[in-house]
Amino acid sequence: MLFSLINKYISINPKNDILSGLTVALALVPEAVAFALLAGVSPLVGLYAAFTIGLVTSIIGGRPGMISGATGAIAVVIGTLVAVHGVEYLFAAVVLTGVFQIIFGVLKLGKFIRLVPHPVFLGFVNGIAMVIFIGQVKQFKVDGTWITGEPLMIMLAIIVATMAIIQFLPRFTKAIPEILVAVIVGSLAVIWLGLDTRTVGDIASIKGGFPAFHIPDVAFNLDTLKIIFPYALTMALVGLIESLLTLNLIDDLTETTGQPNRESIGQGAANLVTGLFGGMGGCAMVGQSIINVKSGGRGRLSGIVASVALLLFILYLSEYIEMIPIAVLIGVMMMVVIGTFEWCTIRLFGKVPTLDIITGISVAAITILTDNLALAVIIGVILSALSFAWESASKIHYEKEQNENADNVYKIYGTLFFASKEHFQELFNPKEDTDNVYIDFANARALDHSAIQAIDKLAERYKRIGKTLHIQHLSAECRLLLKTAKNLVEVNVLEDPTYHVADDKLA
């Protein structure tokens, strides 16, 4: 029974999880080093973050199979903090980031990530794919100069060979993850052939000790809080948005469902721990998560193995890991780009609303240009909301008929809210209407206070010329607002059967 419980919680396929975890660990090294350098901290600060964040989120997070660690999104946020105030303030900010994210999860706010519109999600995924691609292109520069000649040809040959192994090996066998095979074969081939190409060791040394517990060396006062608070809040938002959107992506790839609130708590706990063990903070990693899933990693064991293997690399195997050619890892990440990019979006042109296309492109462009995923997603959500409001506003209309007294009856269809209130007013001409006018909301909905004001304004237009407006089938909530709102004209609301709004108790 104990084995069954452990098997269910940690892994349903230990072999695949172990092999995929080792593959991910190899890919984590250059990424963590690169992001640390981008943030202006020691490479070990990035590697320690990859270890601690990856381990904690794999154990207690809400998305088995998802990989977390040091990321470029976080590195961009913290660069100024490190440059101006030093690395100790960074550690303090990371701890506070963890606290914010735990609160977010405890309040069960993670569920709202499900409300992110699909065009925004597509823009996020495509933007991330392009960011990864641009990151690989930058590897063709050394000290600001583009690689040319024979070194360039060697790099391109290694990249193509690596991509070919990943693409075609699964046709012959799936016993071993193709990415792991590509890394090992590519590295051994370069060493055996004596090819002169850049390796992980050329970027930085990854040798170090076990991360030590370390309380940030800062003054615990209000001044410190004023410094770290904006950075911590930004990191918390950026980290959660990237993590929860990555969770959705892995959900789609694996056809399973993660737990956003639990993942928020897991990310918070991970950042809190990494801040106390000399890490730079981080969140879910799209590229590494896809590598893990594509390599067969599904359980928590894959992330645990990746984190522990990374620590072993730091402690004992650094000289061997530093021999891995950069070109091999570029080849791996290029295949990640191909697998991440939603190619179906190209076929959507002309088939979906133009505003949806604009939203997706905007999110991708902002992601690429700013590396600020939170900003990109927030703007995308706003654009989608405006698009929805515009479309809904234009759909409100009526069907006109007369009752037995020859009074005009308008049956309203659509949604009355802030965006459609002006169009609603334009539908009516009180001067040409009957003395008694009936507006039937049985097939419509009044959503907000702007809708109530629109109804009152229309009633006032009829009242000025001595005519009466009667409202039918308005919801109980709207009738209450009409009866209790101050300084609003009186509207004759006809009594109708009670229509309840479905809520959690009725559902």
Short précis:
The chain has two domains: 2-383, no CATH class; 397-493, 2-Layer Sandwich (Transcription Regulator spoIIAA), CATH 3.30.750.24.
Which outline best applies? elongated
Helix content: 55-70%
* Low-confidence blocks of residues: 484-490, 495-507
State the assembly state of the protein chains.
single chain
Domain STAS: 409-507
Transmembrane segments: 44-60, 67-84, 90-107, 119-137, 152-169, 176-195, 228-250, 299-317, 323-341, 373-390
Subcellular location: Membrane
Pfam family, one: STAS
Explain this structure.
By secondary structure, the chain is of the alpha/beta class. The protein folds into two domains: 2-383, no CATH class; 397-493, STAS domain (Transcription Regulator spoIIAA), CATH 3.30.750. Helix content is 62%, strand content 8%. It is built from 21 helices and nine strands. The strands form three sheets. The chain has a five-stranded mixed β-sheet with strand order 5-6-7-8-9, with helices on one face. Strands 1-4 form a two-stranded antiparallel sheet. A two-stranded antiparallel sheet has the order 2-3. Strand 8, helix 21 and strand 9 form a beta-alpha-beta unit. Helix 4 packs antiparallel against helix 10 (222-254), helix 5 crosses helix 10 (222-254) and helix 6 (118-137) packs antiparallel against helix 15 (326-340). It is elongated. It starts with a helix and ends in a 14-residue tail after the last strand. The relative contact order is 0.16. Mean pLDDT is 86; it is low at 484-490 and 495-507. One of its GO terms (cellular component) is membrane. Its main location: membrane. It is found in: Membrane. Residues 409-507 form the STAS domain. The chain crosses the membrane at residues 44-60, 67-84, 90-107, 119-137, 152-169, 176-195, 228-250, 299-317, 323-341, 373-390.
